[in-house]
Amino acid sequence: MHDRDRSEHGSTAGWVERRDLALLTDFYELTMMGGYHHHGLDQRPASFEYFFRDLPDGAGYAVFCGLEAFLSWYENLRFTSGDIDYLAQQELFSSEFLEYLRELKPSCEIHAPPEGTPVFPDEPLVRVTGPLEEERIAELKRSGAKINAWGVGTHLITSKGAPSLNGVYKIVAIEQDGRWVPKLKTTSNPAKTTDPGAKQVIRFCDARGRPVGDVMYAGEEDVDLDNVPPAVHGVHRERTLTRLAALPDELKRLHNPAGYPALLSERLAREKRDLLGAKGKLTA
Question: 19-278 belongs to which CATH class?
């Protein structure tokens, strides 16, 4: 779980510490929470992951940032009396569920890479693990946890062509009878089928310390770390520059950057194949 050092990060923008932002979400997230509560599923442990599918045109990587703002927002998340009154007026929620929201203090575990880490499509950037009902509250696309590519000149703050990446937040596992059961979502578009199971991303490097590819392993899977670089510490700028300098030049080209492999471990690939087969989604 990400461990923040306030002395490193400094103060956070005041808006993320406000306690009247709980309703800044899609309304169906709240109705789903109400359904979980009604059917007694609200405290069932589940794991969700946030990732993006594509880099902007001409980009070979993205830089992970915005985690501090998200964590501050999450820690301060509360449903105010005004929020509860508004939801009561919709006549869709039980009094028991509204009282639950009134007393709610988020308690999920949040796993993420350090700020300033180069990241790539389809890899979990943030993993949220906790009661199923609270997972809906942590729906990240409303939280301000944006992943942005670098801009140039007057477009330094946000990229002109791609001010943010199209993030995806999906369930990947749910606890059943004391064990974690991997889950995936299928669609008519095979490219949008998600990868199952809570994951850890391991970055492998060559003898010169340059990344050569990432492999996603199951969260509890044993990994040979002989070719994994040590953690890079320091403030965000120092850490980012160090990690970007290690990237191969072909990833940093301004035109036609090379692709970067992000693969599933044998175990996760097998679990995905089995789940697709059970759903009748495998093709010959």
Answer: alpha beta
